[in-house]
Give the backbone structure.
Amino acid sequence: MAVTDKVLAAFKRPQRALMLGHVHPDADVLGTLLALGLALGTRGWTVAWGGPHPAPPMLAFLPGIERYARLERVEGPLDVAVLTDCPNPERTEGLLDQARRTGAAIVNIDHHHDNRGYGDVNWVEPGAAATGEMIYELLMALGAPITPAIATNLFTAIHMDTGSFRYSNVTPTTFRIGGALVAAGADPAFVSGQLYERRSLEALRWLGQALTRIEVSPDGRVAWLALPAGAIPETIIESEDLVTYPRSVESVRVACLLRERNGVVKVSLRGKGDVDVSRIAAQFGGGGHPNAAGCTVPGPLERVTRDVLTAIRAALEAR
Ligand code: AMP
Ligand code: MN
Ligand code: MN
């Protein structure tokens, strides 16, 4: 993983930076924006954090998260806007264009293979399990100290994007960096406790309700969970990685979560290496990684479910 001179040059002298997040921010984008911004802050930078949606309550434990704001608009003066984990400008709901109009240089740091290269500086590493790995390498190259707060943010970023160090994107580098972050003060038991062991009994019962809706194709290769609007509270859907359950069925090669809200269906796709699910998502205007991708499609739920299942079946047949 090579941090280029161009990337390093962008962070050379102290400036005013906006750390700009993508829609429905997750641990990888928030952990990396916080880690990098905190490090820059100690070097004399003026840093603000924000994006189109607020941080989810389940990530309230990330050090510095209280500084991440939902932004209506981006206003200058601004020298640099940093985006992490964001493959395309649409995933900022217009905020990136506003940042550009302030005259800010756009720095795009990401691990999605389908990244559009929209920045003035672009650094894309599809082999990185998480953008968290890249920001760790960047901080090393900058000679920035890894404080416990920074370590916790980066460790959580990597933790989430690797399904707690379980997915096929995990490499020796993932463990090397994970180990360094633990040595620097990230506490694995604290992080997994915060992520997975803060449910209410009510939330556990809702999870049970949701799981009864999982369906599996006759050949066992496709499993899906379709949630009509209002069937399960949004707070439950947002705090549970529901697509992991249909994927956990042994015979399943592609799993899918479809959730309807405000007339659109948010689709999450997961694979096990047989087909590139980001290509299925791309057919519906989305994208992602070979084994984890998504798209948002206009409803109704029944038609989207049928269309997505047809595309999954075609992908499985074509391989
Ligand atoms: P999710 O299913 O929302 O956890 O997303 C899994 C992966 O797919 C992430 O890497 C996202 O960046 C990507 N992804 C999800 N939704 C979209 C979308 N509408 N457009 C492009 N990429 C998406
Ligand atoms: Mn993300
Ligand atoms: Mn990511």
